[in-house]
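Hi all, long-time lurker, first post. I run a small reading group and we've been trying to get comfortable going from sequence to structure in the token notation. Rather than ask abstract questions, I figured I'd post a concrete chain and ask someone more experienced to write out its structure so we can walk through it together at our next meeting. Sequence below, copied exactly:
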Amino acid sequence: MFSNIGGKIKVTAKVFCWIGIIVSVVGGLGMIVAGFSGMWTQAASIVTILGGIGTALLGSLLSWVGSFVMVGFGELIENTAEIAANTRKSGY
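-- Answer (accepted) --
Happy to help. Here is the structure in token form:
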């Protein structure tokens, strides 16, 4: 359960990133469809469509950038474990 924790952190970061991207795109597409439905005034429809595009793009970008910290932490854990293993082998 606690072995290879660095790799598990990196996999979890990738999963959360893809979930965030999918949710952002689906939410953005929902807003775009709602904007084209014609249930609001023309100005409100345009704002909704532009908001949907922004949600899809910006949400995806933020999910990707947000995963950097978690992936970096996973790398840090993996490298620290490797350094510790090499230190034990060399006798320092």
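A couple of things your group might point at:
Helices lie at 5-36, 42-90.
The mean pLDDT is 93.
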